[in-house]
Every structure is written in structure tokens, then in C-alpha cells.
Amino acid sequence: MSIEQTSRQLRARRHAALGDVTRLYIVDLLAVGDRSAGQVRAELGIPANLLTHHLNVLGQAGLIGENRSEGDGRRKYLHLTPEALEAGELPAPIRARRLLFVCTGNTARSPLAAALWQQLSPVPATSAGVVPAPRVSEDFLAVAAGHGLSLEQHRPRAIDEVTETGDLVVTLCDRAHEKLGLQTGLHWSVPNPSPAGTRQAYETAYAEIDRRVRVLLPHLQAA
Prior knowledge:
Elements: H1 3-17, H2 21-29, E1 35-36, H3 37-44, H4 48-60, E2 64-68, E3 76-80, H5 82-87, E4 94-96, E5 98-103, H6 109-120, E6 125-129, H7 138-146, H8 159-162, E7 167-171, H9 174-180, E8 186-187, H10 199-216, E9 220-222
Parallel strand pairs: 4-9, 5-6, 5-7, 7-8
Antiparallel strand pairs: 1-3, 2-3
Helix pairs in contact: 6-10, 7-10
């Protein structure tokens, strides 16, 4: 079978997967943020076995993936693949006065997200941590600088120091998401680069955060 034929088959599988109202609903739920299977099931109000079937169809079509929680290892977070985002429709606009990006230590993922957002959107953004670390890593600063982000002056802060009424909280860390409550704002399950502590780990985190910021941009409007 040629590459072209294989590509057509995959496209047909994706279109078939999206040709179901429930699966379209799942794609809409995951359009700008990650959710656990339990959260999706609660939103849809369907039996667990039926949800498993729909998730399997979407997974086999290459439209969703999953990350195991770095906090509660029993939980997995579902996310859309870039292919699903290209095939889907725009969800309803989200309105926010300001974005508050949160991770555990406020040392890499959340400050990167806030800095990227501020480069691309007029809607203000800031960042914080649920357990702020004492300092940021040199590799984090080097990766940020390599992408034109000046974060040398960044100091980790607690969420209580910066939260304001009207903030849309976006958690980038499973531990922060689970600590703040599973229904809080949006969640992006981005693996923590700190345990590896390598330049490549921070580059990988940067690329994933950059992708997610650009996905959210057209859906968010100033409140």
C-alpha cells in the first residue's frame, strides 16, 4: 500500500470517528484544555463502557492522546492531538479579564506560558505556583532566552500573592490542578521538565506550551 493510500485511509478513519455526536462533544470538551476520563464521563452522563468505546475510536483515529498524572498516578488526562484540532470546529469563545498560569513551583512551565501569552495577546497574563520554589534553573533561563523571552528577573510567587477577581486559571501541572480542584479553569497536562533537568527537557516543555498557547489564542476574548 502506498503512502498516499495509507494517508487516505487515516483521513477516512478520522472523519468516521468525528461523524458521531458524542465523539464530537468529547472533542469540543478537550478543545482548549485537558480532562480526565471521569470528568468527561460526568459531563456527558454516559456509562463508563460507552465512554471507553468512544475514546478507543478517537484514539485509534489518532485524534486523542493521554498523559498519566504526575500527581495522582491513578488518573490520566486526555488531550487532543494537532490533527484533531485541525479537523475540529472552533468552540464557543472564552472570556477572561486576565490569565493566571499555574504550576507547582512557578519555575518553568507557568512563567513560560505567561511570557509567551504576553507576546501574542493583548489580554494580560501572569503566573504563580501552589508551592513556589526558591529559584529557577539556569537551563530554564537559557531556553527562554533562546526563544526571545527575558525571564532573568522572574521570581517564583505563590498563587495567593497574585490572584485577582476575574482571573482565568490555567494549570500546566497535574499536581497544581489536583490541589486547586479538578473543576478550576483550564488544565494543560504538560510534563515537568525539572526532574530530567536537561536543556532538551525544557525545550520539549517550551514547544508543548507554545502549541497550547497558540491553540487557545483564537478562542479567548477580553472580558
